């Protein structure tokens, strides 16, 4: 039974990925090395977030901490840890972080074939009240060792070779896809290892939950307003859906992929491209959703087909259970016909 297996047959994330990668004869273990460095970053953030309240790691940068040092905000600290871990892996050539205006080109002596786009601490405004937050990452692979440029990361999400998130909540859970399904791993602090706890995650085909910031309702377009109306007042007499909105994308998406339903950050009159970022929020979460049997839609197209023009582009996003997203797509298609 699972608990016994955990005790003796430790399926750590490293072992799991090595098994997966060993199916490719050309694989030389580079991806596993890269992933191990991402995992190191997640372990650091997990431990810092857990003691943030105690070690006065929360609050604004510029405060002097108990050691009398210039205090860095947790998201700034996390960003530095991830950048150092990724560069020192020797497997990356270009990095894009939510925290850095410009892409980071890795110095030639430390370059590898992978491009990593990431949000080191998404939802960090929730730290001070103890709400779950997370790291989100996506991985592209370059074909040869040319001088890296932005073109290597301004690629549609369907070109990603892997994506995942790590949620720092009651437990530390890392959810990962390398393009063939989705698996979840939970940090066992006594071992310092992520252990496989959610093998082969499949999102329910239809859900009973919708997740959106209703505070933006006055600015929504027709199809979004109609979809939310149908969730509250179903026309077919089925029960109303429940609204769950945490305001931390990793937590809202994690609930959605496990329980089903939809997560939406629609465009609205105030922000015509919505709020969430294409490269390191929309693409990784859409990659995971499709690999779990769900869908991800921008209101105009399949999210993973979008071609970003700038590294911090935003896009509207509707992701979750296959059938629920079909309903949203039909509403947008109908609007297209009315125009
Ligand atoms: P709003 C957090 O700041 C974030 O980027 C996502 O994690 C979250 O889903 C969204 O913004 C919440 O935005 O406008 O509803 O507060």
From TrEMBL:
Residues 11-199 form the Fructose-1-6-bisphosphatase class I N-terminal domain. Gene3D superfamilies: 3.40.190.80, Fructose-1,6-Bisphosphatase, subunit A, domain 1. It comes from the Eukaryota. Its EC number is 3.1.3.11. Residues 203-332 form the Fructose-1-6-bisphosphatase class 1 C-terminal domain. The keyword Hydrolase applies. It holds the Pfam family FBPase. It is an enzyme of class 3 (hydrolase). CDD domains: FBPase. It catalyses: beta-D-fructose 1,6-bisphosphate + H2O = beta-D-fructose 6-phosphate + phosphate. The keyword Cell membrane does not apply. Keywords: Carbohydrate metabolism, Hydrolase. HAMAP family: FBPase_class1 (MF_01855). Belongs to the FBPase class 1 family. This is fructose-bisphosphatase. It comes from Gossypium arboreum (Tree cotton).
């Amino acid at each position: 039974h699972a608990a016994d297996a955990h005790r003796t047959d430790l399926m750590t994330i490293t072992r799991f990925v090595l098994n997966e990668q060993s199916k490719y004869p050309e694989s030389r273990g580079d991806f596993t090395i890269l992933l191990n460095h991402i995992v190191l970053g997640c372990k650091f953030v997990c431990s810092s977030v857990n003691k943030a309240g105690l070690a006065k790691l929360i609050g604004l940068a510029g405060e002097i901490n108990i050691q009398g040092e210039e205090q860095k905000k947790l998201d700034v600290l996390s960003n530095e840890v991830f950048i150092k871990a990724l560069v020192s892996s020797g497997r990356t050539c270009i990095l894009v972080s939510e925290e850095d205006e410009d892409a980071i080109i890795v110095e030639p002596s430390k370059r590898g074939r992978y491009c990593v786009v990431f949000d080191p601490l998404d939802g960090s405004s929730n730290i001070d009240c103890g709400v779950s937050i997370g790291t989100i990452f996506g991985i592209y692979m370059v074909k040869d060792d040319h001088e890296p440029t932005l073109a290597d990361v301004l690629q549609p999400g369907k070109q990603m070779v892997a994506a995942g998130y790590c949620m720092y909540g009651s437990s530390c859970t890392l959810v990962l896809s390398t393009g063939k399904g989705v698996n979840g791993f939970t940090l066992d602090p006594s071992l310092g290892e992520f252990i496989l706890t959610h093998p082969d995650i499949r999102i329910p085909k239809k859900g009973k939950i919708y997740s959106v910031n209703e505070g933006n309702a006055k600015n929504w377009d027709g199809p979004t307003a109609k979809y939310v109306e149908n969730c509250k007042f179903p026309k077919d007499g089925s029960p109303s859906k429940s609204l769950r909105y945490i305001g931390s994308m990793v937590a809202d998406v994690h609930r959605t992929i496990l329980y089903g339903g939809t997560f939406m950050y629609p465009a609205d009159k105030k922000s015509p491209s919505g709020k969430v970022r294409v490269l390191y929020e929309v693409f990784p979460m859409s990659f995971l959703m499709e690999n779990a049997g769900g869908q991800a839609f921008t209101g105009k197209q399949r999210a993973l087909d979008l071609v970003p023009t700038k590294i911090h582009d935003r896009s509207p996003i509707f992701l979750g259970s296959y059938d629920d997203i079909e309903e949203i797509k039909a509403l947008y298609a109908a609007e297209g016909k009315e125009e």
